[in-house]
Amino acid sequence: MSQSARVIWDDALTSYDFGPAHPLAPVRVELTMALARDLGVLDKVEMGGCEPATDDELAMVHDPAYIEAVKRVSASGRADLSVGFGTTDNPAFAGVHEASALIAGASLAAARAVYDGSVEHAVNIAGGLHHAMPGAASGFCVYNDPALAIAWLLRQGVERVAYVDVDVHHGDGVQTMFYDDPRVLTISLHESPITLFPGTGSAGETGVQGSAVNVALPAGCGDAGWLRAFDSVVPPLLREFRPDFLVTQHGCDSHALDPLAHLMLSVDGQRMAYAALHRLAHETAGGRWIATGGGGYELVQVVPRAWTHLLAELSGYPLDPATPTSESWRQLVRERTGEVPPLTMTDGRSPEFQDLSGGYDPADPIDRAVMATRHAVFPLHGLDPMP
Predict the structure, then answer these.
(1) In the beta sheet, which residues pair with residue 47?
(2) How does strand 161-165 pair with strand 46-48?
(3) What does the mean pLDDT of the chain come to?
(4) DSSP per residue over 253-301, as a string?
(5) Res. 1: pLDDT tops 70
(6) Per-residue confidence at 3, pLDDT binned at 50, 70, 90?
(7) Residue 39: phi, psi to the nearest 5?
(8) What are the boundaries of each domain within the chain?
(9) Taking CA 228 as the corner, what is the angle to CA 223 and CA 230, rounded to the nearest 5 degrees?
(10) Is the CATH number of domain 5-55+99-381 1.20.1300.10?
(11) Which residues are catalytic?
(12) Confidence class of residue 105 from pLDDT cuts 50, 70 and 90?
């Protein structure tokens, strides 16, 4: 489908580092880029650089007082609990403003590249920091780069932006920033707030005119159930909304091996979700697609393979799941982590799912979650909630 994609990259993007014991280890991004390079994925895309977001740019979504507080933390390395620094999730570290502003700038660079028509698709694999709030750091996130990309598009006069978040955690920061703005449709598929941080994202959170959509899935949901939920909610809403641009967040912490959550997807199921979003970008948004990374804390077995599949999908040349990982990459994994690397790009799954055309099962917790969302928001978009 795509013949024009840009990967925004700078080695300094790995400087976003909360320390050696923190789950959000930058080695996951380093290993992703190395694997994508070794498998020839980066040969099929444009590579583009980035500059840090300026204070004025950050202020499109963040309070100026918060930006100044982050800069003080950055200069001193000292905690400031009033803005969320000094917690286990968000330790203070010297240079945090500069590292965070560069990630934000990378998502801005992706948005600019797609907006000006340089490319159809662009991705900031180091981005996706969707929990950051207007005035506080939260959930490993300092500056909310997906929200910043959306806000920048709106400032250019774009009329409709859709945001789809497939991270296992609710995209609460992005939802908060656009909750009352009907120009932005936020859709988040995530583990139920009953069992997972941040404790928000119920079906009843619908924004204005149905601008917020939340599919809260039960712990234990695997490929078939997740893909059924996605298919039952995302395509109908995007087709009705007809966004000018599609922005997506691709946290891969929905995987069964992720240590921080409780869904049971495979890399193969995640790859199918990326392909579905690619198709929807072309069908509903004229191919204008801006993608980011996100969560993902199984640093070797999951993140590099999942996001290499994402980069390959964006390039228009998806990888055969049976593709072996390269020996040079396996050696890098052993050197950098001491872990045993995966041998191929698949978990050996061939996910299949049934759509809702045959009806739904009210005894199935996944179907109950899907129908709760459809009943909450479909009528607000002129859609029939019943399959």
Answers:
(1) 7
(2) unpaired
(3) 97
(4) TTBTT-TT---BB-HHHHHHHHHHHHHHHHHHHTT-EEEE------TTT
(5) no
(6) low
(7) -90, 5
(8) 5-55+99-381
(9) 95
(10) no
(11) 131
(12) very high
